[in-house]
Amino acid sequence: METPPDHAYPDHWEADVVLRDGGTARIRPITTADAERLVSFYEQVSDESKYYRFFAPYPRLSDRDVHRFTHHDYVDRVGLAVTVGGEFIATVRYDRIDARGLPATAPADEAEVAFLVQDAHQGRGVASALLEHIAAVARERGIRRFAAEVLPANSKMIKVFRDAGYTQKRSFEDGSVRLTLDLEPTAESLAVQRGREQRAEAHSVQRLLTPGSVAVVGTGRVPGGVGRTVLRNLLEAGFTGRVYAVNHAFAEDLRALDGVPAFRSVAAIGDPVDLAVLAVPARQVPEAVADCGRHGVRGLVVLSAGYAESGPEGLERQRELVRQARSYGMRIIGPNAFGIINTAEAVRLNASLAPEPPDRGRIGLFTQSGAIGIALLSGLYRRGAGLSSFISAGNRADVSGNDILQYWYEDPDTDVALLYLESIGNPRKFTRLARRTAALKPVVVVKGARHSGSAPPGHAVPVTRIPDATVSALLRQAGVIRVDTVTELVDAGLLLASQPLPAGPRVAILGNSESLGLLTYDACLTEGLRPSPPRDLTTAATPEDFRAALTLALSDPAVDAVVVTAIPHVGETGTTDPADGGALGTVLRETVTSVPGKPVAVVHVEIEGLAEALAVVERSARGPAGSAPAPTAAPPSAPPRPAGAPPAPTAPPASAASPAPAASPASAGPPAPAASGRIPAYPAAERAVRALAEAVRYAQWRRQSAEPGKVPEYLDDAIDESAAAALIARLLGDAPDPHGVPLGAADTRELLGLYGIPVRPTLPAPGPDDAVAAANRLGYPVALKTTAPHLRHRSDLGGVRLDLADEAQLRLAHRELTESLGGPAELRPVVQAMAPRGVDTVVRAAIDAAAGAVLSFGLAGAPSELLGDLAHRLVPATDRDVAEQIRSIRSAPLLFGWRGSTPVDTPALEELLLRVSRLVDDHPEIVSVTLEPVVVATRGLTVLGANVRLAPPPARGDLGPRSLPSY
Fold first, then answer.
1. pLDDT tens across 237-293, in order?
2. b or e along 787-814 (b: 16 or more beta carbons within 10 Å of the residue's beta carbon)?
3. Model pTM?
4. Which residues contact 574 (CB under 8 A, 6 or more apart)?
5. With the CA atoms of 337, 338, 343 and 347 taken in that order, what torsion angle do they form, in degrees rounded to the nearest 10?
6. Which of 182, 281, 328, 571 counts the highest number of beta carbons within 10 A?
7. 578: which residues sit within 8 A by CB, 6+ positions away?
């Protein structure tokens, strides 16, 4: 039986998913070619599971069953399968039914659904993932409810339905439980879905960072080379698990290399392998991946180059690599990666090319560039900072910054997250995850390729059209600390990882150099901090003088943070004592420990030994990651795991059972100095102050996010969402233009009016008599203005004439306008009633397919157009968001009584922003809105111009079922 041509194979239903235990699987529609796979799958299902599925003993499928379960029309009858290694591990199907439970076609909107999961894969979250995907398919095909008959003893399946978060009904009929699920997504179902996504993705990263055994594939036979270097780093770090050297070119009689077992293939290793590091040429990677997959390896780190960074052929090679690895349930870091590090005492993993292993510490570091990764590791090492984990993703074809944020969110060993990003494949998801993580721990980001307009070579990700300034504003809205350079990334990370968050912007400055103190003072003012006049201890100050002054500053309730400045102490002989740096560092650490609770940063100029002394506690207390002795042979192995079988679940992170509790605003932040014992040191005042200022702004965001804003209920009184939806549907029509359509003036006013946004009408004035008739209708005084695109909003070019009080003035203005700028057909003049005087502003909302809807605000004219003085927020915006948005532009003082002017009605402006936000959030078909100018007076505001564009709504990947990106 052939599939009808109008119901062709829906390849957009195919998806890779991460399961509960961190492994991957593929979900796809079942086809007529799957008969043998279905029979083989069914033979591996236990009799008990078959009984639960068919309510009777059902030892084998008949030919009729196989035909029925593999032939679908993809509308009324749909079947999906979950595959690993190309073989089925689970299936689900639905059949559309009518009110009597009989087979039906549209418009019937209910379907009967049934699942079957292979026993070996039960408990991995397979059925939950399948339910999300089959529900999305059903909604696409017009089905609104699922009905399921479940035996009472089938508690696992009942739990899958119960925990999905959908609105549901249950009844007991004829010895079975009948469940009815409303498939419309709810806040609860979305929360359940995202919670499962977080746990699964975090676990998939945990499996990569906490392996019990590592195989280095491509280990050189002689010292040197990438593979041999990784093997050496694993051993020198003291990795606590088993290590294997693998190279197909090894001699058959070679049994060990560098004291670890050596094999010619992963398959030859008799024990399970959790992680494989591939250091072979790109042409040999497919064979190595297949070898790993057949052996049941859990994850791969691919160091090999020659993929998307090398051109179109490499891009296709990269896509095939991802497809191949995921087909075996493996996740990939790379290709073209630098490696991964986990400094936890129980792991001590250094599967990287890092020349200097980092100390153990509380900073997590993710980078998309190997070269930047080397620089960051080196910089952190020199400054005495320690890492909890390091991931260099290379081309990030699979594991990305989003996955790492999922892991760090609940990782008890990571207090600060540092990320170097060159591309953000899913900005909407990234900002969501970053906001959630930033509520618990700082997230610091530096982004490369900000102005190139495209992703770097090797990063096959969607390119967002949003300007970089907008991206920066959206990241800050999510609580992300956005810095410009990798140096600033390290500077901020050092302070945030070792110091408490400041309670405010008040800064005390003390030191033995008046000039250095003044530089610090100026830097504080530049960064928006509130410094006290510097306290000069004079160049004769001793370490004890520093102790007394620092104790006094830290004890002062009017001080939120302290910057200590220091230059070398010069004795009477004109020489410096190298021991002074160590002594001063010890005194400062002791003082901070005795008076904790406020952040301290040190600015020093060439004081030998000071930076080392300030960091000495962390080094001695935690020790370097490679301090443990390396194993000389593989320890006794664990019981073997059958190749291809799902791995036994590893213990989740310590806080996986429940989300980590948010810290209170007063105590929010990383450990206090007493916990880490170190003080960050900086060679320049500007660097120290910039890092401190970022901490101040982040602390303020944390305090505010503890009580998030809301959309005021009064907005509902003037909003008719259903009428707006009907109007939009009529305007788009049955076959909407995919490129979108601009609305006319009347339709724009009608649509905006349904959301309580009145637009002052205009009347055409092609001739002077028309202008006079329009003015008589609207009432004097009026404005005469052109609507030609090149003259719109250009009063400086004479295209707008204001305050025309009578007919004579209007006729004169019309004649001057048409004589100087062009004929009426070109200018398209209109007449509009004058609005109360105020400040001209502009409000915009635009949709980016990747980032979502963005709300923008600024002053109309030169401030926004010439200077780019606009503030941006993600939609939906809250009352707090828009209040901050209005006040964050540089020209905001013009709204609040600058130089004695009367302040304007900012509450009315905030309400307008909330209404526009609600409009585009409720109706994704509205792809752009521009209100310009919006004249904000002392009481009220007037929208003088508006433009709206409609288009078919872009797909919302964040609202669909869980799936891994496929670039």
1. 999 999 999 999 999 889 999 999 999 999 999 999 999 999 999 999 999 999 999
2. bbeebebeeeeebbbeebeeeebbbebb
3. 0.84
4. none
5. 60
6. 328
7. 608, 609
